[in-house]
Write a structure and sequence with these properties.
The chain is of the alpha+beta class and 442 residues long. 26% of the residues lie in helices and 22% in strands. The protein is built from eleven helices and 17 strands. The protein has a seven-stranded antiparallel sheet with strand order 1-6-5-4-7-9-8, with helices on one face. Strands 10-13-12-11-14-16-15 form a seven-stranded antiparallel sheet, sandwiched between helices. Strands 3-2-17 form a three-stranded antiparallel sheet.
């Protein structure tokens, strides 16, 4: 992706404070299907996980090849929304439904590309190492050219969403996992050109095998800042019981519906929505794997701006440890709206109940890990947003991940240091109306 830490840091600034987005983005770019012999996947993936609770805690095996379940549940097509200008939808979000993420299965000496639209694998190579791996790559060129450098960030964030879902679906199918970083050396194995637009993101190894460097190093380059004087800490409530079934939660996960634009119901939401979302977003197993290293925690800071949340004061809160620290009290969604790239007539931020703001320190990550720091940050941001989105879906809320914001407004609202910046935003609330959904699950 990049060759030096300076290149990675330049990219981090070009996709944040220096980002450029055209007024007319253009259309998403269709990607050709891989050629090669077809290997249909067994149908019935969703019925095989029908009894799995959410959050997933066990490792109960499913019938047949577990990857026949993992791939469709994690990355397969979910539904078509007739009133939505962008379709189809999956269990992970993608800007304009462009789906920049591709998955390749490496097992039994073969390399197979997953084709969600056909519910099948296609053979693209052989001579692969032993083990059972799902390689996640990101294709920024799938997004409209008008996004410019933001295409790279969006593609790698989507890869983070995919990794979290693969780990979750793997656990639901009885598979333990380890997530490792993927370098450009992976691409030729998958039949991809290292000089091309596709970026290697991560390898999810189910079971044992693989020798790539761990995604999450052991040191912590950017620990949490001290809680400002006067910040009140609210401890976490009693452990929350399961919130339904995983299959239902994945089906309900939504980035919100509106014709056009986005607005939410003004009804209050329960405090359990905040607590569940914050706790799930903090889980490192969703980006490191169930058996992977836990690595640094502090370099991702998780903030929530709340209004109309029962039992929670309006204000700016940070999830620290097992509790919530209230940094500022008052109504600040209007300020978040000021920092949004689209007007309230198109995206009504003030109608939401919670806005998740995930912040990172890119310079510290580059100093500690070199160019791999940017990849790790994007994967961690995407995985945290995916985890929070599922938690909010379990509470009946939508969660729209966004990169369309002005960093300086949000960084000032949160009181971040000079090198920290908001890397991802999650607009969360209750939908104002139901919509017709056409089921595409296999």
């Amino acid at each position: 992706m990049t060759t030096t830490a300076r290149d990675a840091l330049d990219l981090a600034f070009r996709q944040s404070y220096l980002k450029e987005v055209d007024g007319r983005l253009g259309a998403a770019v269709p990607r050709p299907l891989p050629a090669g012999p077809r290997r249909p996947l067994a149908r019935g993936a969703w019925s095989r996980i029908a009894a799995v609770p959410y959050p997933v805690t066990g490792f109960d095996a499913v019938e047949g090849d577990p990857l026949d379940t993992v791939l469709p549940v994690a990355l397969g097509l979910l539904r078509h929304e007739p009133h939505n200008p962008y379709n189809p939808h999956a269990a992970i979000p993608s800007a304009r439904c462009a789906f920049a993420v591709r998955a390749y299965v490496v097992r039994g000496g073969e390399v197979l590309a997953y084709v969600p639209a056909r519910h099948e694998l296609r053979l693209v190579g052989d001579g692969a190492p032993d083990g059972r791996h799902v390689c996640v790559v990101a294709d920024p060129a799938a997004f409209p050219a008008g996004y410019h450098d933001l295409r790279v960030a969006l593609a790698l964030l989507e890869a983070g969403h995919a990794v979290a879902n693969l780990v979750t679906a793997g656990r639901a199918a009885g598979l333990r996992s380890v997530v490792r970083a993927a370098g450009d050396e992976l691409l030729p194995l998958l039949g991809l050109d290292p000089a091309g637009p596709v970026l290697a993101a991560a390898v999810v190894t189910f079971g044992t095998g693989g020798d790539l460097a761990p995604l999450l190093p052991g040191a912590d380059p950017a620990p949490h800042l001290p809680v400002p004087p006067g910040g009140a800490t609210t401890p976490a409530p009693e452990p929350r019981p399961p919130a339904g079934r995983l299959a239902d939660v994945l089906w309900r996960r939504s980035a919100g519906r509106g014709v056009p634009g986005l607005s939410a119901s003004l009804r209050p939401v329960p405090a359990s929505a905040l607590w569940r979302a914050a706790a799930e977003a903090a889980r490192l197993d969703l980006v490191a794997g169930t058996e992977g290293p836990r690595g640094p925690v502090g370099w991702l800071r998780q903030f929530w701006v709340t209004e109309r949340v029962d039992g929670v004061p309006d204000g700016v809160h940070e999830h620290v440890g097992d509790g919530i620290v209230t940094h500022r009290r008052g109504r600040f969604l209007a300020r978040v709206q000021e920092g949004f790239s689209y007007p309230a007539t198109q995206t009504a931020v003030e109608t939401t109940n919670l806005v998740g703001l995930f912040a990172v320190d890119y310079p510290a990550l580059m100093r500690a890990y070199g160019p791999a720091g940017f990849l790790a940050a994007q994967l961690r941001l995407g995985a945290a947003a995916q985890a929070a989105s599922l938690a909010l879906a379990a509470e009946g809320l939508f969660a729209r991940p966004c990169r369309s914001f002005h960093e300086h407004v949000l960084d000032d609202l949160l009181g971040l240091t000079a090198t920290e910046t908001v890397g991802y935003e999650l607009l969360c609330g209750r939908a104002r109306f139901p919509d017709l959904l056409l089921d595409l699950r296999m």
